[in-house]
Design brief:
Elements lengths: L1 E9 L2 E6 L2 E9 L2 H10 L5 E5 H6 L5 H10 L4 E4 L5 H9 L4 E4 L1 H5 L1 H10 L4 E8 L2 E4 L4 E6 H7 L7 E6 L11 H10 L4 E4 L5 H9 L5 E4 L1 H5 L4 H8 L2
Parallel strand pairs: 1-4, 1-12, 4-5, 5-6, 6-7, 7-10, 10-11, 11-12
Antiparallel strand pairs: 1-2, 2-3, 7-8, 8-9
Helix pairs in contact: 1-3, 9-11
Length: 239
């Protein structure tokens, strides 16, 4: 199982939010590229980047720190937040991103997801963020009536590289991930599923791995706080 360290970008800094609330952010590093390098030097094989301002604005806002991270690190990175049209997708992939994450548009414009996944095989992931089993969009500010599993299944034949499933109520709260819901989703679709939200201990990571169906896990606050020892985590998750 792959561990994706999260670098959430707000106003050019690496931060973490609680429950996706922009007013409840903690700055962990004002040099996101240096933060990314430290994760790579510790042995991480992927980076998970989020443009928080972009998720609310609907267009990229933290392009400069993302580009600095891409220049500083030689491992693949995936980015979500404010990516809502083909030109933005193409632009990011041309700049060296390995994978773009489409969230809001997966609900509002699923045809774009299909078009992008066909045009860029293996480079388009769908971000499904949920509150009580229902999908939330626009930086989690808008709750929909769309059920998580229904949305995931709708992309079963689209060639999507991965689904990143976030339980919003667990995110940043250090209370553990929603293992059962994530595993259920992974069993319901053939698309690889990456767990996000609440991964706060080595035990959480091991429990996710032991489901046997979850492809990866994203962790942010726990890595910054030291609640998860990165070296121990990478060792435990190795094949």
């Amino acid at each position: 199982m792959i561990l994706y360290p999260a670098i959430d970008l707000k106003d050019g800094q690496a931060v973490r939010l609680v429950h996706g609330d922009m007013d409840r952010s903690t700055v962990f590093n004002d040099d996101p590229a240096a933060q990314a390098r430290s994760f790579v030097e510790a042995g991480c094989e992927w980076l998970h980047l989020v443009d928080l301002n972009g998720a609310f604005a609907g267009t990229p806002v933290n392009a400069a720190p993302v580009e600095a991270i891409l220049k500083a690190c030689d491992v693949p990175a995936q980015l979500g937040g404010g990516i809502r049209d083909m030109a933005t997708i193409e632009g990011w992939l041309e700049k060296g991103l390995a994978r773009v994450i489409l969230g809001t548009v997966a609900v509002e414009n699923p045809d774009l997801v299909r078009e992008a996944a066909k045009a860029f095989p293996g480079q388009v992931a769908v971000g499904i963020d949920a509150r009580n089993g229902r999908v939330a969009t626009k930086g989690w500010a808008t709750e929909t009536d769309v059920m998580v599993t229904d949305l995931a299944k709708s992309f079963e034949d689209a060639g999507v590289a991965a689904i990143i499933y976030t339980d919003i109520m667990r995110d940043g709260a250090m209370g553990g991930p929603n293992i059962e819901a994530t595993a259920d989703l992974a069993r319901a679709v053939s698309i690889p599923v990456i767990a996000s939200g609440g991964v706060s201990s080595l035990d959480d990571l091991i429990a996710l791995k032991q489901t046997g169906v979850i492809e990866g896990a994203i962790s942010g606050r726990a890595l910054y706080d030291g609640a998860i020892d990165l070296e121990a985590a990478l060792s435990a998750l190795a094949p």
